[in-house]
Amino acid sequence: MAALSIQPYAGALQGGWDSFVKGSKNGLFLFERGYMDYHADRFKDQSLLIRRGGRIVAVLPANRVGDTLQSHGGLTFGGLVVDRSMTTPLMMEIFDALGAHLAEAGVTTLLYKRSPHVFHSVPAEEDLYALFRHGATLVRRDLSSTIDTRERIPPDKDRRYSISKGKASAVKVAPSSDYRAFMRIEADLLREKYAKEPTHSADEMALLAGRFPENIKLFAADLDGAMVGGVIIYESANVAHTQYIGSTKEGRKLNAVDLLLHHLIENEYQHKRYFDFGISTEKAGRYLNTGLVDFKESFGATAVAYDTFELKLAM
Fold first, then answer.
1. How many CA atoms lie within 13 A of 8 on its CB side?
2. Rounded distance, CA 115 to CA 142, Å?
3. Same domain, yes or no: 194 and 267
4. Is the full-model pTM beyond 0.70?
5. Is residue 154 very low, low, confident or very high in pLDDT (cuts 50, 70, 90)?
6. Do 202 and 109 reside in the same domain of the chain?
7. Three-state SS at 180
8. Residue 283 belongs to some domain of the structure
């Protein structure tokens, strides 16, 4: 059997990279180069392709910071992307080869943010076993809140009341293409509540939505023609993920977001296996925003862990 080879990513390899990601069992549009490379100026990309006999068997979205190679810093999670032919023995070989390759390049630590299981088309936890066998340490655990649409837990009493109030208002919900208007709302909200800025600028969000119109969608809550709330959805094969949720003060009075989320869960995305609200943790997972997680769980969502592992490499 041919030995594994590891190849650094270069722009000329985009076609093969993207084709592999699209056919993988745990890949998302987030791992395609059109998404990863929009912020190439912020991260020293050192993504890798792993081949056997010339055929790609895995890719690793990654960047380097000093002597650490990390799952790409511009992505919430990543890890090895694999196709349906992946086996556990092959994954063990990949980690052996990866460790040797990185150590030779002067990398002492691999920081690995694995993809949560809800985003897998079929089970893809070969890497989880390989991490354990190679002595990796769990160094961060973030917590997301996710609805399994096949096993629905109904919203709680308070949330049902808020949704009813939203339905009784004059707010209308519909798809929108006005990303700039929504990102202004989101930026104002984050500054007011958390003294933070959105991860994406309005221009970046509009750019990415233009590149991935089937995956990135904005739904707005309007009052008399003015946007008072919105949700940006990142849509993949099995998951509708809320990348951003925001509303104006007027929208909050009218329960516009409650109405909009209810509409998305019950109508727009009832066919998806999961509706994922994203994480409610900060400070490397050590702090849980209880108000935020209570809001998400009040819709019937339950916990899904987003795990990061650290693997020290032998030099």
1. 10
2. 12
3. yes
4. yes
5. very high
6. no
7. helix
8. no
